[in-house]
């Protein structure tokens, strides 16, 4: 099971490691954190296709030795593999009041919601959701039993939480693109992986609040943000905060990561297999004439990749980046309700 990974925002942690200062709202610093999260997410998707059959939790635990080969933040990624059996979406776990799960209170809509409610209730008691980078999927959670940590106030007080949207997109779009229709009855395992995947994706999209505050603090653009906020011009705000160069670099990097993370590193493998088959400026497959943009059929190129890099890129392009920007826009739309707010550490 993954531990919840939060930023070193508590003063104790920060002062001990000296990591937190005003520069935390520096855009480059925040982008570094976003890159770490993309490793977790990409690696997780790849592992959806590694196992021939769904692994029970105990087998997944045995799989832990593999983590020694990867940085600790990849550990989160391993838990991202939802349906390790590509033949099994286990859709009944998302279906409200499905007959397979009559044992629990009928007030919970689906097995996944039930699992979320049970787990997030305990996490709320240990004050997980007082951290400014952690957002629950369940409402009406219990109060913490631990005394509050005094976090630095980097964001104005807000209740922006897009997890309901994220969950719907994950169920309706992401899972069908990773797993075929089917049921292998490993409901607890697949729901566990869904929850870990959704939590990492949730942290990623809600990081948009830190990005938005950092952009708002930029003296070069603050007046324009204020003008657009007063006009309630969401499209104008979205256009101003959009950085296509960053997005393009990110998507190209993701494609390369999906290529590399998905490789069978067998005997005699040479990294040059990838550069031989790929256009290194776009990481798209070379066509037979050597030009870029060939279909991403890793198997045909004998690279043995476990996932189509285009699939990973499209999940980010269609869902992760737009939801992050939506969080940024909503955060900025409420920013002038706290005109005197200044981020403090
Ligand atoms: C996160 C940022 O804001 C926007 C969203 C991005 C994303 O979700 O990856 C990347 C660039 C921007 O269009 C940023 O500027 O880094």
N-to-C SSE string, H for helix and E for strand: HHHHHHHHHHHHEEH
- How far is it from the N-terminal to the C-terminal residue, by CA? 32 Å
The CATH C-level name of the domain at 11-207 is Mainly Alpha
Strand order of the largest sheet: 1-2
The whole-angstrom Rg is 21 Å
The major β-sheet equals: 2 strands, antiparallel
- The CATH topology of the domain at 11-207 is given as Chorismate Mutase, subunit A
Helix content: 40-55%
Low-confidence stretches: 9-20, 48-84, 296-302
Task: Provide keyphrases for this structure.
single chain, 345 residues, mainly alpha, Chorismate Mutase, subunit A, two-stranded antiparallel ribbon, 13 helices, 1% strand, binds ligand ISJ, Chorismate_mutase_AroQ_euk, EC 5.4.99.5, aromatic amino acid biosynthesis
């Amino acid at each position: 099971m993954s531990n919840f990974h939060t930023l070193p925002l508590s003063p104790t942690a920060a002062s001990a490691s000296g990591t937190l200062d005003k520069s935390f709202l520096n855009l480059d610093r925040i982008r570094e954190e976003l890159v770490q999260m993309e490793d977790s997410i990409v690696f997780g998707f790849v592992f959806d296709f590694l196992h021939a059959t769904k692994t029970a939790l105990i087998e997944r635990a045995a799989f832990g030795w593999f983590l020694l080969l990867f940085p600790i933040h990849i550990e989160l990624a391993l838990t991202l593999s939802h349906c390790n059996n590509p033949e099994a979406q286990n859709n009944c776990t998302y279906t409200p009041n499905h007959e397979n799960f009559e044992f629990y209170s009928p007030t919970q809509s689906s097995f996944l919601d039930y699992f979320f409610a049970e787990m997030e209730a305990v996490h709320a008691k240990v004050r997980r959701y007082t951290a400014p980078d952690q957002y629950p999927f369940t409402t009406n959670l219990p109060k913490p039993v631990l005394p509050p940590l005094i976090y630095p106030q980097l964001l104005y007080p807000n209740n922006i939480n897009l997890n309901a949207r994220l969950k719907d997109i994950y169920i309706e779009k992401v899972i069908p693109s990773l797993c075929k229709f089917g049921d292998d009855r490993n409901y607890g395992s697949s729901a566990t992986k869904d929850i870990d995947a959704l939590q990492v994706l949730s942290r990623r999209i809600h990081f948009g609040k830190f990005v938005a505050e950092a952009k708002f603090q930029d003296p070069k653009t603050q007046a324009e943000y204020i003008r657009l906020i007063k006009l309630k011009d969401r499209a104008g705000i979205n256009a101003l905060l959009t950085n296509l160069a960053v997005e393009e670099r990110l998507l190209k990097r993701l494609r390369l990561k999906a290529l590399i993370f998905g490789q069978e590193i067998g005997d005699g493998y040479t990294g040059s297999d990838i550069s031989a088959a790929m256009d290194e400026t776009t990481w798209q497959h070379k066509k037979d004439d050597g030009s870029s943009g060939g279909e991403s059929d890793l198997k045909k190129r004998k690279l043995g990749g476990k996932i189509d890099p285009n699939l990973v890129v499209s999940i980010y392009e269609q869902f992760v980046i737009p939801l992050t920007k939506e969080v940024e826009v909503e955060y900025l739309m409420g920013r002038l309700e706290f005109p005197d707010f200044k981020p403090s550490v």
